[in-house]
Amino acid sequence: MASRDQALSLLTAANNHADLAVKLSSLKQAKDILLSVETSVAAELFPYLVELQYSPESLVRKMLLEIIEEICFKAMEYCSILIPVLLAFLSDSDPIIARQSIVTGTHLFPSVLEEMAFQSHRQGKVERWLEELWIWMLKFKDSVSAIAVEPGSVGTKVLALKFLETYVLLFSSDTDSENQVTEGNRRVFNISWLAGGHPILDAVALMSDANRTLNILLDFLRMPSRHPGSLTIAIVNW
After folding, report:
1. What is the pLDDT of residue 236?
2. Is residue 101 a part of any domain in this protein?
3. Does some domain include residue 102?
4. CB burial of residue 226 (10 Å; 0-12, 13-18, 19+)
5. Residue 227 domain-assigned?
6. Sign of CA dihedral 224, 176, 140, 203
7. What is the CATH number of the domain that holds 175?
8. What angle do CA 124, 126, 131 make, to 5 degrees?
9. What is the number of domains present in the chain?
10. Nearest alpha carbon to residue 141 among 96, 182, 102
11. Is 103 part of any domain?
12. Do 150 and 44 share a domain, yes or no?
């Protein structure tokens, strides 16, 4: 209980203190506590953490995204309240925040998908919290797809396209190990895992959507004159 109260006090300081340095220091300390206590205890404080998305300081919002990523890897079952922050930050007034949101989502998407596949294999079903989380990740994917094709910051569009590349590779039918998305040296997901069926994931529909997404990526190479030169160069240099 003492840790919970301390974390709550630190989150309050991160949200309300006038000094930016104090806000960042308080948020970092709160993060350390949230990652060290029982996940159910930490989850009680997530609503206070989410309030920081309205902070006027970009550095606070950026740190919030980094914390969300760490928490979601540790306590995925409680993250449905956190993922909507990623969607909100995609339209943040500061391009750095929008870019960090895409990076965070790119890291989390394969892990949520992997848990979807593993949970079905272990339990024969997908729990409600994970199904809800997957719905949020699909909304994130749709929003990032829109960023990729609409006019906007080249740096943000490049990261959006990198996310779409990850999405395509996740649902590629090619079993060549070089074409599988990995995290470090560990294979994260392969569409073949769904060969026996899945209560939520439709392999055929996902592969079809991945093919449509691949066409979006290929369009950037087929018609480079329609896009800023720096964007085309960035894509070619992947």
Report:
1. 46
2. no
3. no
4. exposed
5. yes
6. positive
7. 1.25.10.10
8. 165
9. 2
10. 102
11. no
12. no
The SS3 assignment for 183 reads strand
CA 129 to CA 231: how far, in whole Å? 38
Digit-by-digit pLDDT tens for the chain (238 residues) are 689 999 999 999 999 999 999 999 999 999 999 999 999 999 999 999 999 999 999 999 999 999 999 999 999 999 999 999 999 999 999 999 999 999 999 999 999 999 988 888 777 788 999 999 999 999 999 999 999 988 888 899 999 999 999 999 998 865 454 444 444 444 567 777 787 778 788 888 888 999 999 998 888 777 655 655 555 545 545 5
Instruction: Give the H/E segment covering residue 32.
Output: helix 20-36
150 and 49 inside one domain: no
* Residue 182, φ and ψ in degrees, nearest 5: -125, 155
H helix or E strand, kind and range, residue 195? none
- The token pair that represents 104 in the structure block: 């965070």
For residues 214, 220, 222, 223, the Cα torsion angle rounded to the nearest 10 degrees is: 150
Q: Where are the beta strands (DSSP E) in 29-169?
A: none
Tokens of 60: 């606070």
Q: What element of type H or E holds 110? A: helix 95-123
CA angle 54, 33, 37 (to 5 degrees): 120
Instruction: Identify the domain containing residue 67 by its residue range.
Output: 1-81
